[in-house]
Amino acid sequence: MTTLFVLDVPENLAVPKVAAEDPAVRVDRLGPYFVISAPGTITVDRRATGCRHAVWYSCIAGLTDARVAQHDKDALRVVPA
Question: Which parts of the chain sit beneath pLDDT 50?
Answer without folding.
Answer: none
